[in-house]
Design goal:
mainly alpha; FANCG; 590 residues; FANCG protein; 27 helices
Length: 590
């Protein structure tokens, strides 16, 4: 409440500088509201000089103070406060305000100096050009302005590098991040910078450079586990599966250990670079994986690479984690690597099937079927009228909710049908053809038929198209599976119908076409079989190539079903047909 006095202001401003630094150190964060103390300090300076600035914004207030206050004793304390103000603005990503402030600070001490050469980063040039005023022994600072300047340079380079990385300007981002890596910072922030450098290099298509930066991050701070996650991703892109799996295993083990107590590598710095850089892209790049997510990635990659025994082990470990409340431990904001839980069960069933553990696969699928049955309505309507409603229209929010609900029901329908599909193949491998036919038939013909009919015959909302395609694939594989089991039972007519329906769902499908030829051959309709085989031979290679290049990739839990549905005897069938055609040609009268 005392009036401002010029003689006391240097001490007052220095005390304000130190108190704000202590506040930051105590809270370990740069609190936006604390910058109000700087504003009050500037108003006190204007008051002592007989001026007023209550109606000015913070940037205008700084401009007025630095341009009008020329008292020599106040210059150093004002510059110190200016650096502190820049820290607050950096933390708020107000880079333009920071650049303007340092322009004012440098102009005030040397009006004629040029601060930025062509090709240089303007903000960094302005910060580096700022001449730190000497400290007075009678007014000690708890953190020197020189150290604060270095930290501001590092934070500004890091922040701008992240912004350029997010914008896709990778060469500029790389340059700025390298500048930050050579700056004044703790081991923790240096490891983060190298992690971001690795991610930038990876996006530039330079995987080896990416690995160098990521390994450097781990050398600096092995607790920077997000770097390990990115190393695994780089190896995945390179197709180096062994290295990827070793990295994921190392990450899983590291996540299972209690991290050592964090000790600050720079305890005497109250403001540090890590307190000034907070952006969504940094949060995303440094996201910590939960150990269960890494366990799932191990299972998934082993299954994709055909390492069935390892995949089974990892999937069973993961399923056991579900008993420990996994859903409460993993974020549900879409950032998790985990798919929906029913899909994990189905992937586990696929792994068990391929490992020859057919009864276990049946049991796992039964869990999926029992949990989803009550969630599926008797009638499912997926007309286009619910596609992407205008948010401004009345009832748009309700329509969007209905679309989401229908999408969820289609997913449940697909999961349950896939469970029956896997059970059908498992029973087939056990030699139980009748039970296999039952499982292939369940759900597919009784519940999928109506949904598929409506999806195919009516316009479908674009948002539902992926689920519709999965349903069609499941029906195709189920018909093929049931048809093969009819062949095993000697029911060639029933098999023929299933293969004909398969071709209606997927015209030109090689497996369906060849099974159709085999069914006709088994019915002694050899002329028709030969005609179909010739038609298939002429058209299938081109159509198959088109099918490979179109459509979405299959869910992992359906890949083994596609492989099992492939026709296994194409060469033998071709020889039989060719022999028949040769004999028929000889019997034809000249």
């Amino acid at each position: 409440g005392l009036p401002a006095a010029l003689r006391a202001l240097p001490l007052e401003l220095t005390a304000l500088y130190n108190s704000l630094l202590f506040t930051v150190g105590a809270s370990n964060s740069v609190v936006k509201g604390e910058a109000e103390g700087i504003r009050q300090g500037l108003l006190r300076v204007l008051e002592a000089c007989g001026a007023c600035g209550q109606d000015l914004g913070t940037e205008e207030l700084w401009k007025k103070v630095l341009q009008e206050v020329t008292v020599e004793e106040l210059q150093a304390p004002l510059h110190h406060l200016g650096a502190l103000q820049a820290a607050w603005w950096l933390a708020a990503s107000q880079l333009g305000s920071v650049a303007g402030l340092f322009q004012l600070l440098s102009t005030a001490e040397d009006p004629g100096r040029t601060h930025c050469s062509e090709g240089q980063n303007k903000l960094l040039s302005l910060i580096k050009a700022w001449r730190v005023p000497p400290e007075r022994a009678s007014l000690p600072l708890v953190q020197s302005a020189k150290d604060l300047k270095e930290i501001l340079c590092t934070a500004a380079a890091f922040l701008q590098g992240l912004q350029e990385l997010e914008a896709g300007n990778f060469p500029t981002a790389l340059s700025l991040l390298q500048e930050a890596a050579g700056g004044f910072c703790s081991k923790n922030i240096l490891a983060q910078i190298h992690t971001c450098l690795g991610c930038c290099a990876q996006r530039m298509g330079k995987p080896q450079t990416a690995l160098q930066h990521l390994k450097r991050a781990l050398q600096v701070d092995f607790q920077c586990l997000p770097a390990l996650s990115h190393v695994a991703a780089v190896y995945h892109d390179l197709g180096e599966t062994d290295a990827e799996l070793q990295t994921l295993t190392l990450l899983y083990e590291a996540l299972g250990k209690s991290p050592p107590a964090a000790a600050s590598s720079s305890p005497y710095f109250l403001i540090r670079a890590e307190l000034l850089v907070h952006t969504p892209i940094l949060t995303s790049l440094l996201q910590h994986r939960h150990s269960s997510e890494v366990k799932y990635l191990l299972a998934q990659r082993c299954l994709q690479d055909g390492r069935v025994a390892d995949a089974v082990e990892h999937y069973l470990d993961f399923l056991s984690l579900l008993q420990e409340g996994l859903q409460q431990q993993v974020p549900l904001d879409g950032s998790s690597a985990l798919p929906r839980i029913p899909e994990v069960f189905l992937e586990a069933a696929s792994a068990l099937e391929q490992a020859g553990r057919h009864q276990d696969a049946i049991t796992v699928c039964e869990e999926v079927i029992s949990r989803t049955t009550d969630l599926i309505p008797r009638v499912l309507r997926v007309e286009e009228r619910l596609e992407q409603p205008e948010s401004s229209l009345p009832g748009a929010e309700l329509a969007g909710g209905l679309l989401s609900q229908k999408k969820e029901r289609l997913c449940c329908l697909a999961w349950r049908a896939a469970g029956y599909l896997h059970q059908g193949w498992a029973w087939a491998k056990l030699g139980q053809s009748k039970e296999a036919v039952t499982q292939f038939s369940r759900g597919v013909l009784e519940h999928l038929e109506d949904a598929i009919f409506m999806c195919v015959c009516l316009p479908v909302a674009e948002n539902l198209q992926p689920e519709v395609e999965v349903l069609q694939k499941i029906r195709l594989f189920s018909l093929l599976g049931r048809g093969t089991q009819f062949l095993e039972l000697g029911k060639n007519k029933e098999a023929l119908l299933d293969f004909q329906h398969s071709l209606q769902i997927s015209p030109g499908n090689p497996a369906a076409a060849l099974y159709l030829v085999q069914a006709l051959w088994g019915l002694n309709r050899k002329q028709e079989a030969a005609a179909q085989w010739q038609k298939f031979s002429q058209s299938c290679p081109a159509e198959d190539g088109q099918q490979q290049g179109q459509g979405r990739p299959l869910p992992l839990y359906l890949v083994s079903c596609q492989e099992q549905a492939a026709f296994p005897h194409s060469e033998a069938l071709a020889r039989s047909i060719q022999n028949y055609l040769g004999t028929a040609g000889q019997d034809t009268p000249s």
